Amino acid sequence: MLSLLLLAAAATADAPLVTFKDWTAGCDNGRACMAVGQYNEKNYELASVVVERGPLPGDVPKIWFLQDQSPIVDLAADGKRLGLKLTPDADDWAVFVEPASLPAMTEALASATKLVPIRRDGEPATALSVDGAAAALRWIDAQQRRAGTVTALVAKGDKPASAVPAPPALPVVRRAVPKGAVGKPFTDAQIRAIQQQYSDCSDDDRLQDMVSYDRIDARTTLVLVTAQCASGAYNMDVTALLLRDGGGRELAKFAGKADEGDLMMNLSFNPATLTLSSGFKGRGIGDCGGGADWV
Question: Cβ of 246: how many Cβ atoms within 10 Å?
Answer without folding.
Answer: 6
